[in-house]
Amino acid sequence: MRPFKSAIKINKASYKENYAEMEKLVLELHQQLKNSQIQGTEASIGRARKRGKFLARERIALLLDKDSPFLELMPLAGLMHDGGFGPGGTTVAGIGYVNKRLCLVNANLGTRKGGAVDYATSLKVLRLGEIALENKLPTINLVESGGANLPDQDRVFNNYGASFREMSRRSKLGIPTISVVFGNATAGGAYVPGMSDYTIMQKDSAKVFLAGPPLVKMATKEIANDEELGGANMHSRISGVADFLAEDEQDAISIARDLIKTLKPAKPYAKPHAPVVPPRYSAEELLGIVPANLKKAIDIREVLIRIVDNSELTEFKTNYGVTMVCCWANINGYPLGIIANNGVIFAESAQKATQFIQLANKSNTPLLFVHNTTGFMVGKQYEQKGMINSGAQLIHAVSGSTVPHISLLIGNSYGAGNYAMCGRSFQPRFLFSYPNVQSGVMGAEQLAGVMEIVRRQSAASLNKKVDEKALKHAKDSMYQDAKQKASVWHATSELWDDGVIDPRDTRKHLSLCLATVYNDNIEGSDAFGVFRI
Fold it and tell me: 3-state DSSP call for residue 527?
């Protein structure tokens, strides 16, 4: 590998202008993330403090190793949902080290709506299950939840059930779940500890039951108190639902940490190459390089050399298919292949990426897809030369590849270009976005323009006169709607990504993602769909 020399001049007016524009987007991101970290109302937090309880994020900090990073996942899930419980839903989740073992940690926000599961939270829990399964991560649930939010029951019901099914499937495969119950785990929430491989309950605080005293009285006329129905002592001594009875929260967390040591040791596929040499160029410069205005072009290599070790890239077919950069590199000592857009995707760009994916599967090397494209090239010349065939080859290669995929969206990610670059629908192990990202079927301007052309052609075919005022109103309305739905805030709210990140934190996020995917065996595929020639 050899270092790539940057051509960026940080004193240029264009760099400074872009830095200022991007900095505004990053500040907006940090404000959104700050809002997502609100753990409840002052009153609910005050009640928890009076009871001697830790808050969800404090429990996570106590559980993780002192020097552990924490890759928070989907902190803005449900951001744009009307009637939702706030960004991130009612759970804080991510990946970190517990007794030197990578674990997925999921902590209910008992101080936000009692930890009840709204629609966004149900989607988030399903996605967490996918991540745990794909990466064979033990899951630790820090439980304090009132179960499903009843007004959301029609949207939560099936997702809730699916999360229990997935817990069972992971258990069958030897991927354990540990639940630590600090407070209420009622109704459907009772099945979280009930379905876990190991369950820890805090004495005098944990309450796990399918129906509380009022519902039991109404249904059966039986009178019983909380402890008789679902107290930790009862479950420890009588029902057997509790495997461990903890004296207090710290004791419960200590038991969970000790349990991790008893699990079957992980067998990492590879350990980082050492010593790790950081990039030669500052990550701070990414704010001046990555365009806030997505109509501006960049050389994607300028981004990559601020992320990879020693700014070294071994590029594949440098002079062929130049709108797609394919290269090998290391991030924090972990080898990977990178497929990155350098503009619109032409036939030769797709063919190059297809071959590179095959090579990665032959060498069992994870792939990072870096998105900044409006999609495949269109037009008579390109259609006649088989653009669809080349695009189909790439999509077959992405679909058939079995090495871990990680996706990073740093600009445009539209149409089939998103699919070919392993967008959300192609199930990458992890997917993160920058705050400038726009994604969808096509850009808002293009979508509104296409619909205008279609309506004019329709009117002409019916010999009708076009109402220009009504058409302009419809076009403007469609443009605004499409623009809003293409925004990164809409995408992250709908869990199209696993989080929006500050570009300067890219290396940190990718390092932990790679540590996670290298935590298990990596085996490429020799089998792909039919490549059209």
Answer: coil
Residue with structure tokens 């939270």?
121
Sign of CA dihedral 427, 432, 106, 185: negative
CA-wise closest residue to 508 among 174, 261, 283: 283
CA atoms within 13 A on the CB side of 506: 30
**Interatomic CA distance for residues 175 and 134, integer angstroms:** 10
Residue 117, amino acid: V
Tell me the two tokens of residue 465. 């006169």
Which residues, other chains included, contact 290 with Cβ-Cβ below 8 Å and sequence gap of 6+?
A: 18, 22, 298, 303, 410, 411, 434, 436, 503
Burial letters for 151-168: b for 16+ Cβ neighbours within 10 Å, e otherwise? ebeebbeebbeebeebbe
3-state secondary structure of 484: helix
From residue 118, how far is each of 115, 149, 251, 266, 445 by CA, in Å?
9, 5, 30, 34, 34
**CA pseudo-torsion sign 271, 274, 279, 283:** positive
Consecutive sets of 10 residues in the chain, 533 residues long: mean pLDDT of each? 84 96 98 96 95 96 97 97 91 97 97 93 97 97 89 88 95 97 88 95 94 80 87 95 97 98 89 90 98 93 97 96 97 97 95 97 98 92 89 95 98 94 97 96 71 81 82 77 84 97 98 96 92 81
**In contact, 135 and 127? CB cutoff 8 Å:** no
* 420 contact partners, CB below 8 Å, separation of at least 6: 345, 350, 353, 376, 391, 394, 395, 398
Residue 202 CA to residue 252 CA, distance in Å, equals 6
Q: What are phi and psi of 479, to 5 degrees?
A: -60, -45
Question: What is d(CA 398, CA 324) in angstroms, rounded to the nearest whole number?
Answer: 15
**Torsion-angle region of 253 (φ positive above 0: left; ψ -120 to 50: alpha; else: beta):** alpha
> Prior bond to 272 cis, omega within 30?
no
- Residues in CB range of 145: below 8 A, 6 or more apart: 90, 108, 110, 114, 115, 116, 117, 184, 185, 186, 189, 192
The H or E element that residue 315 is part of is: strand 312-316
